[in-house]
Amino acid sequence: MNSNNSKIAVIGLGYVGLPLAVEFGKKRDVVGFDINPKRIAELRVGRDHTLETTPEELKAASRLAFSSDLADLRDCEIFIVTVPTPIDNANRPDLTPLIKASETVGKVMPAGAIVIYESTVYPGATEEVCVPVLEKHSGQKFNVDFFCGYSPERINPGDKVNTLTKIKKITSGSTPKVAQIVDRLYAEIITAGTYRASSIKVAEAAKVIENTQRDLNIALVNELSVIFDRLGIDTLDVLEAAGSKWNFLPFRPGLVGGHCIGVDPYYLTHKAEEVGYHPQVILAGRRINDNMARYVARNTIKHMLRNGMDVPRCRVGVLGITFKENCPDIRNSKIVDMVREFETWGVQVVVADPWADSAEVAHEYGLQLGAVDSEHLVDALVVAVGHNEYRQTNPAALRAMCRGTKPVLADVKSLFDRHHAAEAGFTVFRL
C-alpha cells in the first residue's frame, strides 16, 4: 500500500465522521459511508442536519463521495471507523455499532489495509474486540495481512472555535511503522499537530480519562451546589469568589448528558471491574451527575409547593432539550430525566427548543415539543439549556411567559441575575 495516496473510507457520518471525511476529502479520494440512506441523501444535496459542516464546506471537499453501498468501499485501503459507542440500560458498554462496523470493513478490506478506530472505548477494545471481528470476516491475519490504528475523536459538538483541525490529535498504530503512517495521515489535516502515543491501548486510555476527569470535576461542583443550597449560599457566588485564586478550576454545576462525558466513564469502570478492581470515585461521580436532572425537578416542585401551588394542576415549561447549548444533538439528554420526574408529580410539562428536531425528539423520547411564550403560559419555568436565544432574553420577558402571582424560575445554567429575576416576580432556584 502506498499510504501517501491511498483512498480512505470513513465509516459513520455523524458528528465525528462527517467533519473528518470533509477535511480528508479536500486532499484525498474519500468515501463517506453510512448505513442510513436518508443521511447519505441529505449530504449529497449539501445539507447536514447536525450543523457540524456547512454547505460551503461540503462543496469544498471535492474528492469526497457519499455512499451506503458496500461495493463502494472495495477500492479503499484506509478505513476510519467513527461509529457511536453508547451504553445500555444497565450502564454497560454497548459495542454493537463498533462490531457491526468492523464486520462491514472486514468484508471489503484488501490485503495491506489499515483500519483506524476513533470511537471512544475502554483500553484494549480495539485489539481484543475489533481485531478478531476483522480477522473473521476478512480471512486475514492481524499485523501480517492488515493493520490497525487508534486516534480518538475530540470533537466538541456545536463548537465553531475548537474545530477538528484546531485540536491536537492523538495517534497510534499496531506496529511502529503503522504508527508512523497513521500519524502522518492525520498530520495532513490537523493544523494543531499530532501526539503519537506509545501504543493503541495507551491512546484508548488517554481518551477515556479525558472525559472521566471532566465528569468528576462537574460532579464535585454539583455536590457542592447541593450542600450550598442547604446552607442558603448561592453556588455561583462561591465559585466566583474561589475563582479569584489563579489555580482554581472554573467548573460549573449542570446536567451531564451527551455522547461522551456521561457515557465514557462507564467504559473505563467496566474494564476495571473486568480486571478485578471495583472503582469507587469514578462511579460516585457518575451517581451524582446522573441524579442532577431529578434534583432540579424536585427542587422546582418544592418551591412550587411552598408558593401554595396545586402542583398536579400546574403547567411547567422547560426551555431546552438538547444535551448542550447551540447544538441540535439530543443524545443522552438529561432533560428527559427531568421531564419524567415532573410527570411523576402529575405535572403537565411543555418542552420547547429552537435547536432540536421535533421528529427526532418524538422518535427518541416520545416527547412532543411545544411552545412556551406569552400565549402559552406556565406556572413554573425551567431554563435548562444555555442556548443563545435564552441568554439574550431577560427575566421580565420570562415573567411574561408565566401566570399566577408566584411563579418559580429554575435557572439551571445560571444565565440570569438572580436578584433581577426576583425583582421580576420569580421565586428563583439555580444550581
UniProtKB/TrEMBL annotation:
Q: Name one GO biological process term.
A: polysaccharide biosynthetic process
Sorted keywords for this record are: NAD, Oxidoreductase
The residues covered by the UDP-glucose/GDP-mannose dehydrogenase C-terminal domain are 317-418
A GO molecular function assigned to this protein is: oxidoreductase activity, acting on the CH-CH group of donors, NAD or NADP as acceptor
Question: What residue ranges are annotated as transmembrane?
Answer: none
Q: Where does the secretion signal sit in this chain?
A: none
Q: Which family does it belong to?
A: Belongs to the UDP-glucose/GDP-mannose dehydrogenase family.
This chain's protein is named Nucleotide sugar dehydrogenase
